[in-house]
């Protein structure tokens, strides 16, 4: 790890400590394996943050692209077996946690997401394609992050493109759907940032159908 990377890594840890302390958490930096009340094979995280029934074991990585999701998923699954405990992967490429929901409590329930999809259908029927595009993408992101948490795939803090690719690598998204979703995201991003983007209504309708299928499948496996 270069000096600049180490500095950024250390600054991220300090920032996390400050954030969690402000939220009323008790935080331990570089806790020993004995600080964890169950066996993780000697694993030592960067932080443990606890507050009431919420107990987080936190690992900080510099590059999301270098993360072994398979290894960390096994760790996250083991941790999730213990009531109240959850593994959290943080990288220097994360979205700002203040702007993006990264916990179950911050995300809509499956029924709420289904209801939101109905609203997208109404917007499309009324010819309001641009609002439908923006709203549909927000619903899909919420669906994807919720699925990651429910399956203990510790990527829910990653930016959307990385999130999609990691979820594909874990077999959650079909290879045939990745390009469709990324293309739709690109159109949505240009629209969201003020571009005079021409949105194809057929693209919105086909993406809506795709999101509906994933939402139906995932919600049936992990009902709220």
Describe this structure in words.
The chain has 224 residues and is α+β, with helices and mostly antiparallel strands. The chain has two domains: 89 residues, 3-Layer(aba) Sandwich (Trna Endonuclease, Chain: A, domain 1); 118 residues, Up-down Bundle (Four Helix Bundle (Hemerythrin (Met), subunit A)), CATH 1.20.120.330. The protein is built from seven helices and four strands, in the order H-E-E-E-H-E-H-H-H-H-H. The chain has a four-stranded mixed beta sheet with strand order 1-2-3-4. The longest helix has 22 residues. The mean pLDDT is 89.
Q: TL;DR?
A:
The chain has seven helices and four strands; from the N terminus they run H-E-E-E-H-E-H-H-H-H-H. By secondary structure, it is of the alpha+beta class.
The main sheet comes to: 4 strands, mixed
CA gyration radius, whole angstroms: 19 Å
Using the 3D structure, state the CATH architecture of the largest domain: Up-down Bundle
Q: What is the H/E order?
A: HEEEHEHHHHH
Share of residues in helices: 40-55%
Specify the CATH homologous superfamily of the largest domain: Nucleotidyltransferases  domain 2
The first-to-last residue Cα distance is: 42 Å
Can you tell me the overall shape? globular
Mean pLDDT across every amino acid position: 89
Q: Helical stretch count?
A: 7
Strand portion, in percent?
Answer: 5-15%
CATH class of the largest domain: Mainly Alpha
Low-confidence stretches: none
According to CATH, the fold-level topology of the largest domain is Four Helix Bundle (Hemerythrin (Met), subunit A)
